[in-house]
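hey so u asked for the seq, here:
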Amino acid sequence: MADTALNRRVLVVAILSAFVAFLDGSIVNVALPAITTELGGGLPVQQWVVDAYLITLGSLILLAGSLSDLFGRVAILRIGLIGFAVTSLACGLAPTADVLIAARAAQGIAGALLVPSSLALIMSAHRGATQARAIGLWTAWTSAAFVVGPLLGGLLTDFASWRWVFVINVVPVALTLVLLVPLRNEPAVQRPPLDLVGAVLGALGLAGVVFALIEQANYGWSAALVWVPLVVGVVSLVGFVVRQAVAQHPMMPLSLFRNRNFAVGNIATVAIYAALSVSGLVIVVYLQQVAGLSATVSGLVMLPVTLCLVLLSSRFGALAGRFGPRWFMTLGPLLVAIGFVSLRSIETPFDFVSQALPGVVLFGLGMSMTVAPLTSAILGAIDSERSGIASAVNNALSRVAGLVAIALLGAVIGTLVDDAWLDNALLLCAALMLTGAITSAVGIRNPPRIAAANSSAHDTE
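ran it, structure tokens below
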């Protein structure tokens, strides 16, 4: 197979693998009302259906990155894809809410194997300008998964059943497994030991904190069922950080954060992806449960965001490669924040053009300006031989930000879904996006060669 064709196949495999993992973090949102109508449980079950997946996905991405480096990206991708198909079927066949939540947690484990391996596959197969373009395409499509999910999920929920939201995963997984066949697996020559202690501390810490944040709405902070997991979770997370500082082969090398752009970029990531996760949940839930829209129509409301991401992300990624990521990472989240404020016009009766269209267009344009420059700033700050772990850290933080934000939703804005609930949630999302914009403006530095080139161009004018 010619190198060009091989690299193209690698890119398609990488995009499909990560896309299906990210899609499942958002496709379920529009199906949540239908799930609780059939299985019961209300908002707490809705939160757990989302967060059970994100807990295992976010807490195990770092470990999955290490497994990918040790045993080879292709091998880990293949295992992850097969596991994702099996657990997706388990979700679709779940007879009760408890079984569905357990299957979602198992699905997150499989999803964790897909994300770092897919981007590491691109980094190893592409070089120079083609690598930057490949990262831009990967970022565009995986980011689009956050907003294409509600549309696809709505269609499946309305015209088939919420169960097909999970079963449909078998189709892209099967296609990706076929495309993987000609690719060679290249495991590491040297295999340092895995940081299993760090993995356990990280997973236990996240699970404890998120469990407490969700269940406090039902039992209150004074209940032992809430504060005991919270204490165990906080202690475990502190232990995780200590472990990473002293371990010989840490899951998350703290030395990465000594690089300014890597550290600042990840702070911006936490704020931006927390807002993205919360907005993706609250908008579609409100449109169905209060405005009375079908799952399909509520998904269509966010279609302009998807179109902007697919059509414009690569272009803004190229511009950021030329002019540096700083101001794209600043202006993009700022536009999204304005879009969220604009979306507070949504009310009942719902009118798409007057209430939602300006906001979702600003949302899509702003995210298109943000995602590729953000990824490039973070990965470009780290030596190429550590790009795999740098990608895993960034993806882990973005997933953790989303799950903690959703878990906090009930505590911060309440559990009664009405006009005030949506308004407060959108203000929270706007504040988070504004935090990402300010963090980028103050903290991000354009690479020296770009800054020098821009200065020279200015001097010659």
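DSSP finds 18 helices and no strands in the chain. Residues 128-159 form the longest helix (32 residues).
lmk if thats what u needed
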